[in-house]
Amino acid sequence: MTLSTHDGAGARSGAPRGSDPSVVALGGGHGLSASLSALRLLSDRIAAVVTVADDGGSSGRLRDELDVLPPGDLRMALAALCDDSEWGRTWSELLQHRFTSGGDLDGHAVGNLLIVALWERLGDTVQGLDWVGRLLGARGRVLPMASVPLVVEADVAHDDGGRSTVVGQSRVAVTDGRIEQLRLVPADPPACPEAVRAVLDADWVVMGPGSWYSSVLVHLLVPGLAAALEATTARRCVTLNLSAERGETHGLTHAEHLEALRKHAPGLRIDVVLADPSGVDDPAALAEAAAALGARLVLRPVRQRDGSARHDPLLLAAAFRDVFEGTSDVPC
């Protein structure tokens, strides 16, 4: 397996390279985009399984007005799977373009409108996403984690000793307390069948980075998807954030991120936990938390060279390559 900067022709033809692993990446928003930007350098056999609980901005408005899945996280995943050719860059930028006006279009992303228009035209969510992927020459497939729009609820403990229930992904993401329990409404949503099949057929499943509760752990609360994650023969890699985010994970250590995962999915076995050593406060505690999930800890430098809390696609791709090829025990 080699890192590659493709010109897009192979992706548009749909022909996978023979030695590529089949990878499913779970998440949403910028975290999932970081994983996909790296994974597309390693494989054309990618399926992004994306949260559908967004209730803010353009996505929230379209969701409320048209009773559709929120398209924003799906759009970002499609844009991340575009290659670095002129075609890929142009469509990626167009998908992300937002209108600025004093009218109803203000704040809407072009990609959100395109996706929802195809859903209305075709009457099929997955088929519509596949059509957008074909137009972009995307290096993989984008699928919703559930077939209906979801609401995230969190029980939160506050520093003053009080407790509250926070409703809505956009509010959970910025809550200033410690999340004790996460729920979805409806509590038993139907998983997207194509997402379940992708997980069962995968060689690797990658979870994270991203907003830990509102974008990553929510996948574990969709019963059909959770069952597939436990039943699959794929190996599972958890990619940790570079630092705790303001809001839902403020003050949490990396080890506590893994403890939260175990709490919400006690039967899920993880094979590898991938983290950047610059952001790990206590490597021994993190290794112990990883071991409790059945995983080994792999430390690799994956941070942007400017020191910001963003993953570098090439460095992250190199780290994934080591993990997938079983060379991840080499010291960093």
Task: Name some characteristics of this structure.
seven-stranded parallel sheet, alpha/beta, three-stranded antiparallel sheet, Rossmann fold, 332 residues, CofD-like_dom_sf, 10 strands, LPPG:FO 2-phospho-L-lactate transferase activity
H/E element order: HEHEHHHHHEEEHEHEHHEHEHEH
- The CATH topology annotation reads as Rossmann fold
Average predicted local confidence, pLDDT:
90
Number of domains: 1
Q: How are the strands of the largest sheet arranged?
A: 3-2-1-7-8-9-10
Distance between the termini: 20 Å
By DSSP, the count of extended strands is 10
Low-confidence stretches: 5-17
CATH hierarchy: architecture: 3-Layer(aba) Sandwich
Query: Roughly how many Å is the radius of gyration?
Result: 19 Å
CATH superfamily: CofD-like domains
- Helical run tally: 14
Instruction: Categorize the overall geometry.
Output: globular
Task: Characterize the largest beta sheet: strand count, sense, and whether it forms a barrel.
Answer: 7 strands, parallel
Binned strand content: 15-25%
Question: Can you give a write-up of this model?
Answer:
- This is Putative gluconeogenesis factor.
- Pfam families: CofD.
- This protein is α/β, with parallel strands linked by helices and 332 residues long.
- The protein has one domain (22-324): 3-Layer(aba) Sandwich (Rossmann fold), CATH 3.40.50.10680.
- 40% of the residues lie in helices and 15% in strands.
- It contains 14 helices and 10 strands.
- It has helices at 9-13, 29-39, 57-66, 72-80, 86-96, 110-122, 125-136, 169-172, 193-201, 212-216, 223-231, 254-264, 283-292, 313-325; strands at 23-27, 46-50, 141-144, 151-157, 163-167, 178-185, 204-207, 235-239, 272-275, 296-299.
- The strands form 2 sheets. The protein has a 7-stranded parallel β-sheet, with helices on both faces. A 3-stranded antiparallel β-sheet has the order 5-4-6.
- β9 (272-275), α13 (283-292) and β10 form a beta-alpha-beta unit.
- The radius of gyration is 19 Å and the shape is globular.
- The two termini are 20 Å apart.
